[in-house]
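Dear colleague,

Thank you for sharing your sequence with our group. We've completed the structure prediction you requested, and as agreed, I am returning the results in plain text so they can be pasted directly into your records. Please verify that the sequence below matches your submission; if there's any discrepancy, let me know and we will rerun it promptly.
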Amino acid sequence: MLVSRKKIILLFVCLCATIPVFSQYFDYNQYSSLLQNDPKRSYQIGGNTNGFIASDALNQNFALSLVTSGNLSNQTIASSRLQENNYLSGDFNSCFFANIMDNNTGFRIAASTRSFIDAGFSKDAYDLLFYGNNMFEGQTADLSNLQLHIISYWKLQLGLIKRVELPGGCFTGFLGLSLIDGMNNTNINFPLLTVTTGMGGEYIDINSKFTYKGSDSTQSKISDLNGIGAAADIFLAYEGKAPGITITFTASDIGFIHWRKHYIEANMDTSYQFDGLNINILNPGQVQSPGLSQDTLKKILYAHSHQTTATVLLPGIISFNISKRISKLFEVGLGSDYIIQTHAKIPMTYVNLKYHILKVLTLTGNVGYGYYNNANVGLGVNMNLFKYLYLRVGSNNLFGFLYANNSFSQQYYAGAYMKF
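Please find the predicted structure tokens below.
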């Protein structure tokens, strides 16, 4: 059977990469509009989108080439910063909302969609995929700890907003409860996976311990209701008057999804030998495999699978920020955030600076470090047009655009809402 290199790369994305939801760090928070409500009467309607991708191994040039064309040059493949164990995470979110305030009490209605992926893979797994098994002739490639977690869902939220005027400032609290509609969930874990190539490529021995849990990707419409769950979001803020200090805390997507139908679980602890295999992706861009076909892999999987149900926790997000207005023109801030279900080593911690050029125009700059030892420098623009329209756009990692070969993360945000 002949398999094109593009399909092999697609398989790699499915097994050990990510390009998906939600990033609050630096100057962007989906609940920041709550701080600009008129406590007596205010109506807001708007939307926002944001996301990030970060890795300790794969640079942005690799990700961009993969997404735009699916073709990776030898130079791009060789530019990855590989270690024995490598990780990649991504998170993208889009949200539409309406806020209604009346006498310091209000309500929020929102609908959002989120996709999240977290993956881990070994150096041998990367080398086997992109260089073929010729380099492992007479050797064993260790692909153990290959992991992939994918989850995507819709969220319908109804929340309560409360403002309390204090002698020195104002306290704003928000509690949102959401109904979750699960779209897709995949969990793949190989505690043990080794591939031994015989001399001359005469055979391949595969030893594996394998766990697969996932929903049916063909049944992923909203109306399918494969998974149903609930989540809570909390936003707390204090705005000091005289010192000009604002402190915020956010906990988002703290909840679960119960996958109740079209959910499969498979567990394997076994060995296979395939004769007559010769995998070499670089010459001439094909994989010749008379014994290891896609149908064979499906048969192996389904022979060990059964229908089941499962309850899965959502990848919640925790963030904290403190900012101070140091003059009429400048404001400085410090904060940190973390996505709970990732392989990230440390939270993202940042410092930002806002320059209020005009009453209707603010420039933001930030420097941050965290997740997979990624350093970030970003810029953004906030605008208030016609007193009713608020716009916000920016990226918290310009390195991802300017130095794609040396940058291992990217983040963007954009939002708009009307106040009347």
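Summary note from our side: The chain has one domain: 2-340.

Kind regards,
the structure core
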